[in-house]
Write a structure and sequence with these properties.
16 helices; about 270 residues; mainly alpha; globular
Length: about 270
């Protein structure tokens, strides 16, 4: 609030007082991370820079949790160079450090960094069973446009978690590779994985790209969990793209029952 109004001095005063006042109830670590998270979400780079100065002044620059939060803040505020400098200066990186940096490269399309990160992970974590780290690489490559590299990482995983399958399905859908995206969906179910809402949103995106709307509805009807608003919105969007008025009305009715105040459903239905 203060940062947005240009009252950085007041923001600093409130921050200093809140840290001291709440030190008994909350750790300084958590309080500072909360402020950095708020700075990242609002894009308030000036406030984030001031918090970094506060961290340095109080001798907390060694705290990996705070450095990870700083990396996240700088990357989300668009300053990837500073984020990477902080990352490189870490004497010891944890999984969160890597995930934050990988997500930053994915969101900002940092082609020059993603290959370096992958090569480093390949070298250091070659025998690691941290499946979330490899899944983050799949997400990074898919979002940066290198779907072949994403597939290479995915196929090289000896074990997979649901998030790995979801990342691959969504990545293929993102690139309009409908037939290829349905293959991992079939494989994951045959291997005993239960699709969640994220899986179905990805598969429905595939069906939308390929015009397979009836297949998409069959999948929804066979879901073990109750479809949420995101799934119905995705399905309704597909009906709009392919001008399926009859199916669109049916899908919209489900969405109206679930989210009667959602204006997006009415807008999509009116545009079919």
């Amino acid at each position: 609030m203060y940062e947005q109004n240009g009252e950085l001095g007041n923001a600093r005063l409130v921050f200093d007082k809140s840290v001291l006042r709440d030190a008994v109830l909350y750790s300084v670590d958590n309080r500072v991370r909360f402020v950095l998270s708020a700075s990242a979400q609002s894009g308030s780079l000036n406030l984030g820079k001031w918090v970094r100065s506060w961290i340095d002044e109080h001798g907390l620059g060694y705290n990996i949790h705070l450095v990870n939060a700083l990396i996240d803040m700088y990357s989300k505020c668009g300053d990837l160079d500073t984020a990477f400098d902080l990352f490189e200066d870490l004497e010891k990186r944890d999984v969160i450090s890597w995930n934050v940096m990988i997500n930053a490269c994915a969101n900002l399309g940092a082609l020059h960094l993603r290959k370096w990160i992958h090569a480093y992970i390949d070298k250091i974590f070659q025998n690691s069973n941290n499946l979330f780290l490899w899944t983050s690489l799949i997400y990074m490559y898919a979002k940066c446009g290198s779907i072949e590299a994403a597939q290479e990482v995915f196929n090289g995983m000896k074990q997979k978690i649901l998030a790995s399958w979801n990342a691959m399905i969504s990545g293929l859908a993102m690139h309009g590779l409908a037939e290829k995206a349905l293959d991992p969906f079939s494989r994951m179910t045959s291997e005993g994985f239960k699709p969640d809402n994220i899986t179905f949103v990805g598969v429905l995106s595939v069906c939308s790209h390929a015009g397979l709307l009836d297949l998409g509805q069959t999948l929804i009807q066979n879901m073990e969990m109750k479809p949420d608003g995101a799934i119905w919105i995705s399905s309704l969007g597909a009906c709009r793209v392919h001008k399926r008025v009859d199916l669109g009305e049916s899908v919209a009715n489900h969405l109206f029952e679930l989210e009667p105040e959602n204006p997006g459903a009415y807008v999509l239905l009116s545009n079919i």
